[in-house]
Fold:
Amino acid sequence: MRQHHRTPRLLGTLLIVAAAGLSAGTSAAPAAAARAASPLGRVVPAPVSADAGGTPYEITRGTRIRVDDSSAVRQVGEYLADVLRPSTGYGLPVTTNGTGGIRLRLGGGPFGDEGYRLDSGAQGVTITAGKPAGLFHGVQTLRQLLPAAVEKRTVQPGPWVVAGGTVKDAPRYAYRGAMLDVSRHFFTVAQVKRYIDELALYKINALHLHLSDDQGWRIAIDSWPRLAAYGGSTEVGGGKGGFYTKAQYEEIVRYAASRYLEVVPEIDMPGHTNAALASYAALNCNGVAPPLYTGTNVGFSSLCVPKPVTYAFVDDVIRELAALTPGRYLHIGGDEAHSTSHDDYVTFMDRVQPIVAKYGKTVIGWHQLTGAHPAKGALAQYWGLDSTSAAEKDQVARAARNGTGLILSPADRVYLDMKYTDATPLGQKWAGLVEVRRSYDWNPGTYLPGAPASAVAGVEAPLWSETIVKDADIDYMTFPRLPGAAELGWSPTATHDWNTYRVRLAAQGPRWEALGIGYYRSPQVPWPAR
Ligand code: TNX
Structure:
């Protein structure tokens, strides 16, 4: 019966925090305020609906995780058990038998590819979805309905109570990405897996890996072995760099898939290619390989557009990478090609996009691709700013009206490498300072003037790594902004409200502490005292 004492106390605290939020800023939508105060309404990203009511469920030593007789559902059950066992100390067998407990089931309903429904009551918690991905996302919601200490890796006192009620949920956008730049600084397979686990918490479903740039080539290509062996041998600052063997890359892809993320590999071309140009003299128009580069300038390198060998190279790289990548997309970069003439850029993109299609993948390019001829079905990733010229925005909007899909990554909103304030020790500020509110408070559906809302495929938060070296650096720049980008990608606009979001976000702080994630304690967010 402890839960009956706990719930009202928690509610009271939340109402006080919410009230403090209201007095500090503009008035919140009443529905959103009521949601943030509800024990089921603190989830990030905000679900479509959360109706509290009925008896809570307490996870005990006797609880089982009951799954459908399907390997994918069983794997989601095992994943949940792996989260819950260390902190609860319970056995939590994953089984197809019995009644009650935590039930993961596939069923009919308006769930789509990733939606789910969670029902919690005295007998147990049931998550129902049309597909295993929906069950996985429902499991992330369930984690957030439990006390933060559930995330610790040692036995904690509990109790492990899930408030009674129903959550119904499905994403606003199909593409919800995060990008990790493994070129400027290299990150190991273990580091990438750790990041995948962090992203999965917030229902991110795409991991964009920026695999090549001036400072390093990070994926083994058998037909051009010096790309990785030599082109991958350094990084910003002159460290030893590194690259993924094919087996390691496949391990990342598999791990991401186990968390329902699709890997989107990027080979940035025709600019940002010094590591490739340094590895093979023949790729250079003058036939001379430049030295490796360990600085942070951009825009000085270009593949040689007139040379036939360039397209043999691109064909080999895309063929090998496509063969390793089960996902739909292949990102060909295309940004900041300042050393490529406009005509050459258009020629290059006209030749390279069909190669991507030939190997069965859909093109994604940075939004400069809209200055060429985006292939049918291609997605353009917009990384401009509020202050980007109307002409440039218009070029992207026009492409969107003509059928090019958009991934929105406005640099002055969701670039995770931008400093929060002038005092932020890491990151850059060319796009401005990006505090938590600025990062969250925009609408992807109406962001780009003249682009139809239906063209927006989703939102992605990129983390460029010129200044990012270790896990703690990744975490500090990612948290708390990534959950905001994830919410913009997942939650319906009706839930969008800074004053209630900041209260829900604050409740995530203790979870990150339990997970060992160091984050920026933004003064804009009413974090609980530690
Ligand atoms: C711009 S965004 C770049 C990257 C840098 C980043 C640093 C984009 C497509 N290009 O090359 O790493 O700024 O914030």
User: Anything to note?
Assistant: Confidence is low (pLDDT under 50) at residues 1-28.
